Amino acid sequence: MVEVSRGGKPVKHRSFGTGAALLLSVFVACCGLSGCGLRLTSAPPEMPFELEIVHVNDTHSYMAGMDTYGAACLDPAEPCAGGMGRLAAELRRLKAGRDNVLVLDAGDRFQGTLFYTVNKWPMLAELDGLMGYDAVTLGNHEFDEGCDVLADYIRALDTPVLAANLAPGPTCPLRGLEGVRPYEVRNVAGRKVGLVGLANPDTAKLAAPCADTRFTDSAEALRAAVAELGGQGVDIIVAVTHLGLSADRDLARTVEGVDVIVGGHSHSWLASAAAPDLAAPGAEGPYPLVERSPEGHPVLVVTAKYGTEYLGDLHVRFDGKGIPVAWGGAAERLEPSIPPAPDITARLEPYARSLERFRATVLGEHHLRYADGMDACRSGDCLAGMLQTDSMLDYGRPYGAVAALSNGGSLRAPLAAGPITRGDVLAVMPFGNTLVIREYSGADLLAALEFSADAEHGKGARLLQPAGLRYRFDPALPEGHRLLAAELVDEQGGVRPLDPAGRYKVVLLDFLARGGDGYDMLKRGTVVEAPDPVDADVFAAYVRAHSPLPMPRVGRILKP
């Protein structure tokens, strides 16, 4: 048994195996000091401790894994990368015979595939309960359907949900909910390890929490938790966060006492220091990233992309004072060749069968080839984004709309070439956003485009996907001065500059019209009377009317 302290009250928690501690020397010998990114310093002789942290983030209900195009696989028997079966198999292999392994999930389990659209949170609660997580935190998408739904999910879990910065008000269903706490203390192989969770404080802008959902400052919440844990004699602290890689690195540099940050939200990929593709597009640094605390101690920051494709595996040696002195590991791809756990595959089969009626309804087809998928739609023009906004503008033109706007984060999968089913559409647009038409000043639209350009490195979920409009920006310029041009494009391809003093009717997702993703300027639009259809329904009608789909006009999002 492994002793666990929850808010200072010891309880017992089941251990997944006991035995010898991790032989870090064997790990080093297998991959080499430079190859694993392992760094050694002279450690005090008293009681060094070796810990292995296995982690995932932003799994987004990729229950059967991901295909080579980044689309969600919908059959657990398919040879796809990742998926809950392969994840469970690897977690069990890594924990077998070891008592110093922690398994963490950094949030965003809800949403992202047809599996979730059809089966919702009960499916996740069942499968998450079989993964052996030691703790999880909350992503913004856990709030997409409100706090009542989230509370039901948490009650069904047998896993601690950690969120030190979550401070629900009196009317919020999460207030006082058993199962949610700021931190957890684990007695791991005879050493106390503190786990602190941080949920995404921008949830009100990104999802649909109840009005009384509140968050405190993440850094202050972490400092307070570290102080409390220190009072309990805990000198090894791991933060599990859903803030994004940039925010995690800032926390590492500003909050003393944290040793490891396991993060999510930004879908970042950190390549092994030994990997030849470290400098390849998409890699945001080595695994782990090493920051320094205010007192100069190393803080290891890790994350593992998204969609169950990767599993992070961090090995850390601590000295007797709880300071990391050696480390190594990688975010390893869960290759299709890994046999999935048979019991998980069996559990997934009825959920996969529930998707069949959606997959059987063919709406049309396309034979187009263009960049697509979650990463592409957060970086620039993408096929799904262009087709989605074209369908929106096609719907909105009879009401006077001259442009359409969506956000990259609303698009969760590529639209693969071939037959297009109802299931394909719901996989691309799973959120049930409604379309609204608003009239804006040109100044407000320019402010929205500037805000889009100000996303980190000109990328991210808030990047605007347009139709009837194109814009050019330079992400290397100072924030607030990146937008270089914005022009309306009519049906014949005619172009005219967006006039700050003009008035323009725009069809957009209700999420954006409510100020989602921080677009407060889009809350200022004047309502244009029109139906409020669901985006997926409008797109389905567009596919039926225009199949096979023509190649959309490209060059909408222009960068140097």
Task: Outline the structure in words.
It contains 16 helices and 28 strands. It has an 8-stranded mixed beta sheet, with helices on one face. The protein has a 5-stranded mixed beta sheet with strand order 5-4-3-16-17, covered by helices on one side. The protein is globular, with a radius of gyration of 24 Å. The N and C termini lie far apart (about 60 Å).
Provide a brief overview of the structure.
This protein is of the alpha/beta class. 26% of the residues lie in helices and 25% in strands. Mean pLDDT is 90; it is low at 1-45.
According to DSSP, the number of beta strands is: 28
Number of contiguous helices: 16
Provide mean pLDDT, rounded.
Answer: 90
User: Main β-sheet, in a few words?
Assistant: 8 strands, mixed
Q: Give Rg in angstroms.
A: 24 Å
Low-confidence stretches: 1-45
What is the overall silhouette? Answer: globular
Question: Strand order of the main beta sheet, please?
Answer: 2-1-8-9-10-11-15-14
What oligomeric state do these chains adopt? Answer: single chain
Q: Structural class of the secondary elements?
A: alpha/beta
**End-to-end gap:** 58 Å
Strand composition percent: 15-25%
Percent helix: 25-40%
